[in-house]
Amino acid sequence: MKQAGYVQLNRRPVLSEDGAPLDILELHICRTRLCIRMHELRGAISVGSPARVEKLKWNWMAYTGGSAGSARVSKSGKALNIDLTNGERFTLALDALHAVLSCRERYATVAALPPRMPPTGARNRLITDFTGRVPGEGTTPGIPAHESPAQFPLIACET
What is the pTM of this model? Predict the structure, then answer.
């Protein structure tokens, strides 16, 4: 995995859409400032619910500027995975995140994950793959199962 940025506790006051001050975790990923609200982050770590990742904008002071993705704990429970709406994915270790939240460390490293591959349909499959029949089952006695109908001898019928 490749280092993409870092996280830190907020150093400046940040306002919500309503003008109320927020307690956030700042994400600096690929020269972009994002944030996760602390109460949502604590819920994501303890319960497993997704937390919103929001853009940080600057006018005369920092404020949240809309949703940019979501963050949730990985299935193994050892990392926080961040999925952005543009398809980029990042991760950070929960041990490093706990060190930042408890003020033992100032920063934690964020790593980039490879993008998810879209599922592709099955190609070049045999009909027997979909019917559940075993090849050779239900064939004519005396004719090997590997022979195709095109290889059968033609029999002339008299009427």
Answer: 0.70
